[in-house]
């Protein structure tokens, strides 16, 4: 990664993190007691989640402590960089890799800040009558979809190259 790309990534990650945190501070200060559900199953419903602070903790009912989740956040913070590097070195030098890395790192930093600042996650986007999430969760989900896209493109390129080599060797 060149210096300009690195600076751009740092700025994007800082902006995404700042947007998430500013929304949460605004909600915490002015809108915690407000609920707005304009469409059945979708709306605004603030909730400070301090008991099940991760999707795995919630869905699997693991009961993992905040401290343990903070340590996991810190340990996994470099994972998107490593995955992005792997994808780039294995035949997918597209810009989507940077989107993946930026979204995932911003989401991880937001998750870490949630646990440190609020002692949990301040969720506010209500949908499907069951889930409440926040912008950080959207960053992480979008990052996962971009990662899947990058891997598919990488596999398609590698298969195309293998096929071309096989055709060349069969001549």
Structure description:
This protein has 171 residues and is α+β, with helices and mostly antiparallel strands. A hairpin with a 2-residue loop joins strand 1 and strand 2. It has helices spanning 3-31, 55-59, 66-76, 79-89, 96-117, 135-170, and strands at residues 36-39, 42-49, 121-127, 131-133. It is elongated. The mean pLDDT is 87. The two termini are 38 Å apart. Helix 5 (96-117) packs antiparallel against helix 6. The longest helix has 36 residues, at 135-170. The protein has a four-stranded antiparallel sheet with strand order 1-2-3-4. Helices cover 67% and strands 13% of the residues.
Number of DSSP helical runs:
6
Question: How are strands sequenced across the largest beta sheet?
Answer: 1-2-3-4
Q: What low-confidence regions span 5 or more consecutive residues with pLDDT below 50?
A: none
Please give the alpha-carbon distance between the first and last residues: 38 Å
Principal-axis shape equals: elongated
Task: Report the count of strand segments.
Answer: 4
Radius of gyration: 20 Å
> What is the helix content?
55-70%
Q: What sequence of helices (H) and strands (E) makes up the elements?
A: HEEHHHHEEH
Q: Strand content of the residues, in percent? A: 5-15%
Structural class assignment = alpha+beta
Largest sheet, if any?
4 strands, antiparallel
Q: Taking all residues together, what is the mean pLDDT?
A: 87
Oligomer: single chain
Structure, briefly:
With 171 residues, the chain is an alpha+beta fold.
What labels would you give this structure?
171 residues; alpha+beta; four-stranded antiparallel beta sheet; 6 helices; 4 strands
């Amino acid at each position: 990664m060149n210096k300009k790309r690195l600076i751009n990534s740092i700025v994007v990650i800082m902006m995404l993190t700042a947007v998430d945190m500013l929304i949460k501070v605004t909600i915490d200060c002015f809108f915690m007691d407000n609920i707005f559900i304009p469409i059945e199953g979708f709306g605004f419903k603030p909730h400070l989640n301090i008991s099940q602070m991760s999707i795995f903790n919630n869905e699997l009912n693991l009961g993992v402590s905040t401290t343990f989740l903070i340590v996991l956040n810190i340990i996994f913070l470099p994972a998107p960089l490593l995955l992005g590097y792997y994808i780039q070195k294995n035949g997918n030098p597209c810009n989507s890799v940077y989107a993946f890395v930026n979204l995932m790192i911003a989401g991880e930093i937001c998750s870490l800040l949630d646990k440190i600042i609020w002692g949990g996650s301040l969720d506010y986007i209500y949908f499907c009558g069951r889930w409440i999430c926040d912008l950080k969760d959207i960053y992480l989900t979008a990052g996962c979809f971009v990662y899947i896209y990058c891997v598919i493109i990488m596999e398609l390129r590698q298969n195309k190259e293998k096929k071309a080599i096989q055709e060349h060797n069969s001549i």
